[in-house]
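Good morning C.,

I know you're traveling, so I'll keep this short. The sequence:
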Amino acid sequence: MAVSQWIQFIGQFTEVIDLSQLAKLQPESKGEKTNVAGQWIQTLAQAIEAVGATTQGLTRDEKLLVEALIEGMIEDALQTVGNAMQVVANKEFITGDLRTYLDELIDKKDTIMGIASSDGNKIIGMAGFERIIKAS
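The tokens, ready to paste straight into the viewer:
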């Protein structure tokens, strides 16, 4: 079991390094920073889990086994914190995307309602609406 935990840690560690490097290449929003931080916390938790699984597999000492169980509880708490941070980040991404989409819809509505037309005149009625649709 410990071997699979270490393999999972290595994969997660590689992923979080790539994610961090990607975040450096493009401007970071608050959501992106929160997402990367959450991923790092989850990676730390995975490392603790791998160490705990290794300890449990290699020892019969009661004290070390209890310490490994405590490490497991810490790992669970860190995983929860990391997951919660990623939920917050995803909410920020979705909210930003929704805001952009709504702004685009408002712009299209303004165009259709005649506030902006190609010849500078207000467009009134269905004929003007059809003219905008054909021009798009």
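Safe travels,
E.
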